[in-house]
Specification:
The protein is mainly α and 136 residues long. The protein is 78% helix and 3% strand. It has six helices and two strands; from the N terminus they run αααααββα. It has a two-stranded antiparallel ribbon with strand order 1-2.
């Protein structure tokens, strides 16, 4: 029974990296090389959702340490995101992420008739310009 338990434990610890990184990496490369755009969207959505999940996990780490089943819940969630039968990543992206992103990224008309840049773009370019001035 001891060797079987060790095998189960090792398989469980390998399931996370395989499900969260190796398979999505392989599927992303296959998607880029294919002519279909649908699989590209699925895997881009996966990496966006997975990045957000990882960031939230880092922020909530002290709380998650008290949840002994967090790793199992995360594994099930990632399986739902990854498996092509469910297309969970595309679903979450379409349902929640896209509408919020479009609010902040779309250009809006400025009062003077021109097109105003979005705040994020202004923030990034302002930093880039100031950093470039430091080196010149």
């Amino acid at each position: 029974m001891g060797k079987l338990w060790i095998l189960i434990t090792q398989l469980h610890s390998l399931a996370g990296p395989v499900a969260t990184l190796l398979y999505p990496l392989y599927a992303s490369v296959v998607a880029i090389e294919s002519t279909s755009k649908l699989d590209d969207e699925q895997w881009l959505a996966y990496w966006i959702i997975y990045s957000f999940l990882t960031l939230m996990e880092m922020v909530l780490q002290p709380l998650l340490e008290w949840m002994p089943i967090w790793y199992d819940v995360k594994l099930l969630l990632v399986a739902w995101l990854v498996l092509p039968q469910f297309k969970g990543a595309a679903f979450l992206y379409e349902r929640f992420v896209r509408q919020n992103i479009r609010k902040h990224i779309t250009d809006k008309k400025s009062p003077n008739g021109g097109i105003a840049k979005n705040k994020f773009f202004d923030f990034i370019t302002a930093k880039k310009v100031s950093l470039m001035n430091l080196f010149i």
